[in-house]
Amino acid sequence: MGELEHMRRTRDGYDSAAAQYLQLFGNSLREYPLDDAMIGAFADLVRGGSRPVLDVGCGPGYVTDRLRALGVRARGLDLSSEMVALARETFPDIEFEQGRMAEVALPDGSLDGLLSRSSIIHTPPGDLPAVFAEFHRLLAPGGHLLLTFQAHVDDAELAWPFDHKVAPAYRWSVGRVAALLREAGLQETARMVVAPELDPIRGFHYGHLLFRKPVTESM
């Protein structure tokens, strides 16, 4: 089988928008203090570990750089080759690789942490369990996941499509996404749902889920 159409469209879309994306959002964490606070909490949990932390869907690398500034041994992964090239140019002391978040070329249990900030929004709903299974595989026992995404507080559906300039996108039910993470074998540590009034672009809720891979998993 060839590459899935949605992946090709997403990759090509972000390839063409990489420079504009960095210009628009490179300093955006200053405008979203609650997002930055969750990244800080995540950094506190993973800092000092013996394994690296992966920023999945890192885009031009500014969140990866924020993790490094917080003392985390972070690296980035993105589907878009242009995003990866821009990240390498902007942050030459950080390792960035191109790849798919559902098939990361790292051994089992090789990460102390995994951050995914808005990187699942282009994933077809039926593919989300496979992505979460890969997150579980990558995390070492005791490792932490911070997953953030455009959200909906209604649990009647898993996903609601919305218009996006780059590729088809979804906002996700916070409760149902948390349930899928639990089904993947992860344990919830905390969650935060930011009010839609704080989203100046679309007026969506924004979900932050902090999960942990159990140190000892049930057989």
UniProtKB/TrEMBL annotation:
Pfam family, one: Methyltransf_25
InterPro entries, alphabetized: Methyltransf_25, SAM-dependent_MTases_sf
UniProt KW Repeat keyword: no
Transferase is among the record's keywords: yes
GO BP annotations listed: methylation
Gene3D superfamilies: Vaccinia Virus protein VP39
Keywords per UniProt: Methyltransferase, Transferase
Residue span(s) of domain Methyltransferase: 53-143
Molecular function per GO: methyltransferase activity
Descriptive protein name: Methyltransferase domain-containing protein
